[in-house]
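S.,

As promised, the adenosine-5'-diphosphate run. Input:
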Amino acid sequence: MKRQSVKLKITLWLTLLMVLLFGLLLTFVLMISRSVVLQSARQQLSRTAMSNVGEISYENGTLTLSDDFKFYDNGVTTLIYSQKEARMAGQVPVAFQGEAPFVSGSLREVDGGQTVYLLLDLWVPSGWDTGVWQRALMAVPSASQTVRNLLLAAMLALPMFLLLASLGSWLILRRAFRPLDRINATAAAIGEAKDLSRRIGLPAGRDEFSSLAASFDQLFARLERSFEAETQFAADASHELRTPVAIIKSACEYGKEYDETREERQETLAMIHRQADAMSALISGLLTMTRLEQGTELPSMTQVELGQLTAELLEAAAYEGKDLRLQLDAGVTVRADPALLGRLIRNLVDNAAKFTPPGGQIQVIVTRNKKEALLIVRDNGIGIAPEHQEKIWQRFYQADPSRSSDHAGAGLGLAMVEQIARLHGGSMSLKSQPGQGSEFTLHLPG
Ligand code: ADP
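Predicted complex:
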């Protein structure tokens, strides 16, 4: 089927409606004016007939008409007929060719040939059984001049009026539909050019189109985010997996060539195992972050007692050679996803343990200030130089990769920590001095 624009359809419909309305209005005006004209003609006819009938006398076969008798008055013709219905006085109007039986006192419409006539017969008695007929006639006036002028004006005005009205509605509709055209064009451009960064960008308004455009923009933004997250995931994963895979490959080759003793083989296998562990941790970390970013893995929020959660996670944990101290205030509750929050705490404490030399101290504090719940992880380890402090939150950023290479980890931990804090409506802050230690604080609302 041919595609027809909604604008055209609405304009046509409105024009048709206007023609109909106009026609209806005109018919109504004509009907009213006709009935008014007819009514006043009837009154005129009766008045003349009644006044004339008083001026007739018929005595002993002689008809006498007084001076006030009028054969023609205001369009009314009066005729006198004998009892035998033979015309005695008056002139029949030329246009009246009809024949009508005499009926006294009934005002009726009679077809007079060319025009319709109003007719009123009155019996003028003389004595008991004689008398004459008075017949009053009047041509039913056609629509008056005013009505005729009105009709003419309407006929002339109608096309102008219709043209103006349909042009007006077309222009208004075109303006109203412009946002839709823009939505259409943007969607088509995204489809053709695969450019997800394009937006409709309608100014915020209160009509349906503005909210539709806003919803579309949100959808495009979401699509763009997930698309970017996917691309980022693929890029990060392939980049980061390259190193462990290369290490595993060369370990295998080396092992085939040179490992002679059982111990040597064990050592190579252990190295392969470590690299495989690192790969698997990397992939699962990346996957979690991507899912959280895309919104496919939504946090399931419940009321969490922060001190209790920290105690459950860390009381049984042992960090070899490190002195782990917990200082947990009771009654610090937040809305959080316990699994995600647990991952955040573990990441911070693991880092503190990794970057603190043997004999160092790790302090975990749960408390609150006036506005926020706070979780502080403090260590007296190697610290972080000021130039790295901003960057360590980025994916894969490691302040000192040579130092980190002996630890498992690929620089994803803090990026995930920051993402989890953000998902909970909170934030992370850091205070650190190289050589003295670091203090990571999670701020959560509530
Ligand atoms: P990873 O621990 O896998 O290297 P993270 O994202 O957890 O990755 O940390 C990024 C970098 O931040 C680390 O490589 C390290 O340089 C620095 N860092 C994190 N926590 C600490 C800490 N407690 N003390 C000193 N440096 C730290």
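The longest strand covers residues 116-126. The pocket of adenosine-5'-diphosphate is lined by residues 351-352, 355, 379, 381-384, 392, 397-400, 404, 409-415, 438 (CB under 6 Å).

- D.
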